[in-house]
Specification:
It is built from one helix and eight strands, in the order αββββββββ. It has 140 residues and is α+β, with helices and mostly antiparallel strands.
Length: 140
Amino acid sequence: MKRIIVLFTVFSFTFSSCTSLRIKKSIEGFISSTEAKPSQNKYEGNYNLSISFSEPYGDIDVSLQIFYKDLKLSSTISYFNGVEDIPVIVNSTELFEGAIFINLVDPEAGNVEMEVYFDDENSISGFYAGQFKFKGERIK
């Protein structure tokens, strides 16, 4: 009987200790996700940019939207072909040392990477496929 009481006491103590740890972890997770929001706003927004390609393409106007979805950085991209906006498939969007790297599918070249650098609050610049420069402005 004493063994049962001792085991029950140990089990109760262990269970209550683990519960408090889980609550503490979830509170810490909530605080860290709340603290991350101000820095997220630094990158979020809609941008218009122009990528300078060589002939026969010339300059192409591009719309870029950067946003957080479930605390994960995401983006959408489209370009204007002279008649309508054409959406581009985005494979991934990652933040690394203050720059955003977007892996996307170019219908002409396959998978390429777009590097986006934040010059100030309202302007961006970078490279498309590592060689074509662009500049852009935040519109929202």
